[in-house]
């Protein structure tokens, strides 16, 4: 590298003045103006703001303020959360921005990519990203992964004169390239202009929720149309029409998306506290669905701090073997952890080389041909190199012993001829002379055992996929208490299988050794085809293909730039031990969201059914705007702020959101609607019977029946919370026992709040409620308790399930 002079400081200044720099700003997220626009200018907000405006014209400022406060509070919280998300996205883009190594004045220096100028000579090493378009210069050789640009997974050999494109990654080898296109002219800029902009990616859960909201929006629009027709054709006041329109607007669960967004935001914040950085918005959802985790041994199960443990010379002295190994490690241009460990243990001197084949995870060996010595030295996996040589029984026994102790074993060999990538393409290696066997130790992470047990607790099936010897991987897995039933298979065996056999092997085995990057990606793809939701961890360039195949890609912070750039999650400080907590966090978030949706759906369905039912039987409207607001606030709004926080992880139902809710939502909705309708009609009939003989039905006071309806709805919704999270077996039926009393305590506290609203005249007047006697409150309380017993009986006997002939649970 040092033989290339690069640009001088004067040449760099000239190019900067000419504007030939790489200083372009890529959009990383939405602008603040767009955040405000998308949160404020929505159809639902427009409806609510219009209703507030009409209330002001009708001189009902309290209604207008109430509607505006409810809507604006949601808008403000949404804007604040998304501004926080924007800032985090911008920080992530800044933190993950790669640095460039350039040669200037004959020396290597590290600079920001924006400081690259046209004509700069850049250094490319394994794991580095190609930052600008250019051409290889000098004597280096690299293998480049262009799959992010072309979609093809094959590595492309690049030598002097060959073009390289920004957005690709160096998989092996080292070389220099000259910057020929910078800034907006590069391939990467053209691609990432759209790719790096903020885009709303909906998770499967969010997609189903959006479907529900669209259906409710259609229902609300239909009801608004009916109200408009009724206003034209009947003698209803504008005030009545606006009140009804406001209640119907409440059928659109604007707060539901807010609750879900805040749940994801809280989860991301908690994960960041565990050194887990969420890079994709759907990563939280993915975490909750993962049932198979594929681990790469090096850097995840182990510390990735390799040491040369022992040497076994073959037909020569250990001193001679150490000398040749040291020179090999010192001379290689494609440094890796193995060569660095050899150099530390053996020393050595860098010698001029005629040719070098860098290590590749696919080949599993590297080679160097020295300029002053005939022949080629090769360092690689024994299973691969032994195809071209023969080892004595003593060496074979030594390999077996070391492998079974969990050491990584490498064979060092020699051939008298030259080896090039072109010469071995499609053929085997020439005959080799073994020189010695190297054993490397790679220590387990201190928390490896606890981490693996955490995965088991989260219900995650583990698969260890490694490029090392299967026996070595299995030995390390046993040390980490990976499993009592270790079933291992090698990449050589997998290579002989067809697609169906490979899919079965991916399911049946849990330790895979001597796996190539392509096989690793095939295994992940096979697991996904088998119906599993797969997460993959990795730290090296060889893991890029498998990370892209997985449902969820997880990278180490110390890993290559390539893995970090495509991963959905990055483990800061290589916090592998945080992963079990991360999976549990994902499950907890989705469980909380599903519980929130159940309460929302019960309330929305009840109100919608009551609107139709009461209109049919009494030609009246059940609720006023403030009545609807208090039912929503006490029965759903406040409880749903606690549910996502207190939710617990656990196994998730694999069926769709809608079907998984039917067992709880349908019986609760039907029974609450029938009880509420009965209570409303009872008080309405009582009001009619209490009318003086000379007063017509048009003079009926609807406020007492409406107050009774609000009260029974609040009582039933608060009783529904213990059913959602049963503190004891007495409350089980709709949901399994949770044993958590916090939800019930919140329900009792909210019941007291509502009774205080009824008892305190200013609050009661503000919410347009009529006073209820103690006898009325006790009566409604007994009705609610009787409803709860009937609902529990319905759940426990599975009456509705059997009536419909389906399994709703």
Please tag this protein with its features:
809 residues, alpha/beta, Calcium-transporting ATPase, cytoplasmic transduction domain A, Rossmann fold, Calcium-transporting ATPase, cytoplasmic domain N, 4 domains, 8-stranded mixed beta sheet, 7-stranded antiparallel beta sheet, 32 helices, elongated
Can you walk me through this structure?
- Helix 23 links the parallel strand 20 (552-556) and strand 21 (569-571).
- The chain is an alpha/beta fold and 809 residues long.
- The strands form three sheets. It has an eight-stranded mixed sheet, with helices on both faces.
- The two termini are 66 Å apart.
- The longest helix has 40 residues, at 579-618.
- The chain folds into four domains: 1-182, Distorted Sandwich (Calcium-transporting ATPase, cytoplasmic transduction domain A), CATH 2.70.150; 290-301 and 445-577, Rossmann fold, CATH 3.40.50; 305-444, Calcium-transporting ATPase, cytoplasmic domain N, CATH 3.40.1110; 589-804, Calcium-transporting ATPase, transmembrane domain (Up-down Bundle), CATH 1.20.1110.10.
- It contains 32 helices and 21 strands.
């Amino acid at each position: 590298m040092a033989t290339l002079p690069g640009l001088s400081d004067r040449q760099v200044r000239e190019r900067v003045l000419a504007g030939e720099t790489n200083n372009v700003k890529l959009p990383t997220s939405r602008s603040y103006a767009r955040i405000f626009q998308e949160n404020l200018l929505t159809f639902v907000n427009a409806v609510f703001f219009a209703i507030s405006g009409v209330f002001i014209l009708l001189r009902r400022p309290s209604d207008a303020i109430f509607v505006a406060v409810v809507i604006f509070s949601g808008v403000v919280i949404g804007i604040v959360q998304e501004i926080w998300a924007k800032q985090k996205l911008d920080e992530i883009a800044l933190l993950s921005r790669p640095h460039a190594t350039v040669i200037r004045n004959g020396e290597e220096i590290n600079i920001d990519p924006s400081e690259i100028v046209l004509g700069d000579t850049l250094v490319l090493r394994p794991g580095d990203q190609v930052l600008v378009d250019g051409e290889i210069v000098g004597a280096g050789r690299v293998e480049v992964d262009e799959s992010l640009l072309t979609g093809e997974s094959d590595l492309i050999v690049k030598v002097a004169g060959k073009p390289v494109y920004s957005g690709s990654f160096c998989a092996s080898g080292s070389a220099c390239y000259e910057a020929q296109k910078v800034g907006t002219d590069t391939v990467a800029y053209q691609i990432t202009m759209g790719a790096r902009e903020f885009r709303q990616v909906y998770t499967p859960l969010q997609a189903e929720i959006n479907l529900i909201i669209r259906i409710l929006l259609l229902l609300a629009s239909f009801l608004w149309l009916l109200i408009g027709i009724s206003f034209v054709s009947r003698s209803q006041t504008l005030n009545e029409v606006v009140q009804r329109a406001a209640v119907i607007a409440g059928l659109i669960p604007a707060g539901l998306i807010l609750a879900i967004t805040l749940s994801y935001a809280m989860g991301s914040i908690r994960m960041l506290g565990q050194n887990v950085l969420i890079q994709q918005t759907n990563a939280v959802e993915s975490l909750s669905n993962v049932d198979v985790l594929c681990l790469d041994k090096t850097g995840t199960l182990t510390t990735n701090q390799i040491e040369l443990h022992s040497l076994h010379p073959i037909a020569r002295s250990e001193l001679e073997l150490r000398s040749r190994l040291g020179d090999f490690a010192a001379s290689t241009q494609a440094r890796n952890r193995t060569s660095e460990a050899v150099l530390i243990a053996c020393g050595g001197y860098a010698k001029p080389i005629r040719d070098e084949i860098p290590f590749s995870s696919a080949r599993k060996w590297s080679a160097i041909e020295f300029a002053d010595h005939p022949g080629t030295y090769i360092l690689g996996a024994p299973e691969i190199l032994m195809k071209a040589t023969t080892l004595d029984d003593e060496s074979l026994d030594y390999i077996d012993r070391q492998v079974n102790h969990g050491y990584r074993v490498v064979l060092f060999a020699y051939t008298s001829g030259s080896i090039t990538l072109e010469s071995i393409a499609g053929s085997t290696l020439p005959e080799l002379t073994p020189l010695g066997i190297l054993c490397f130790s790679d220590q387990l992470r201190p928390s490896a055992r606890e981490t693996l047990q955490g995965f088991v607790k989260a219900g995650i099936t583990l698969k260890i996929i490694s490029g090392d010897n299967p026996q070595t991987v299995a030995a390390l897995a046993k040390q980490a208490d990976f499993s009592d039933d270790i079933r291992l298979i090698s990449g050589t065996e997998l290579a002989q299988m067809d697609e169906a056999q490979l899919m079965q092997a991916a399911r049946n085995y849990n330790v895979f050794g001597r796996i190539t990057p392509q096989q690793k990606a095939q295994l992940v793809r096979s697991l996904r085809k088998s119906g599993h939701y797969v997460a993959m961890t990795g730290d090296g360039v060889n893991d890029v293909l498998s990370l892209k195949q997985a449902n969820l890609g997880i990278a180490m912070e110390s890993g290559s730039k390539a893995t970090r750039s495509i991963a959905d999650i990055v483990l800061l400080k290589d916090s592998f031990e945080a992963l079990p907590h991360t999976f549990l966090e994902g499950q907890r978030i989705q469980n909380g969201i599903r519980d929130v949706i159940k309460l929302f759906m019960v309330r929305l369905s009840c109100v919608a059914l009551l609107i139709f039912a009461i209109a049919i039987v009494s030609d009246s409207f059940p609720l006023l705007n403030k009545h609807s607001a208090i039912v929503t606030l006490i029965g759903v709004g406040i409880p749903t702020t606690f549910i996502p926080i207190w939710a617990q992880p656990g196994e998730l139902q694999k069926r769709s959101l809608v079907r998984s809710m039917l067992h709880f939502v349908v019986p609760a909705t039907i029974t609450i609607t029938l009880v509420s309708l009965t209570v409303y009609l009872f008080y309405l009939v009582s009001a009619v019977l209490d009318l003086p003989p000379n007063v017509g039905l048009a003079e009926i006071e609807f406020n007492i029946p409406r107050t009774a309806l609000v009260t029974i709805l609040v009582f039933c919704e608060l009783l529904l919370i213990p059913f959602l999270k049963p503190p004891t077996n007495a409350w089980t039926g709709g949901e399994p026992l949770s044993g958590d009393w916090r939800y019930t305590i919140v329900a009792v506290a909210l019941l007291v709040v509502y009774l205080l609203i009824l008892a305190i005249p200013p609050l009661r007047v503000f919410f347009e409620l009529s006073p209820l006697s103690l006898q009325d409150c006790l009566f409604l309380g007994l009705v609610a308790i009787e409803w709860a017993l009937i609902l529990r009986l319905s759940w426990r006997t599975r009456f509705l399930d059997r009536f419909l002939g389906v399994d709703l649970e």
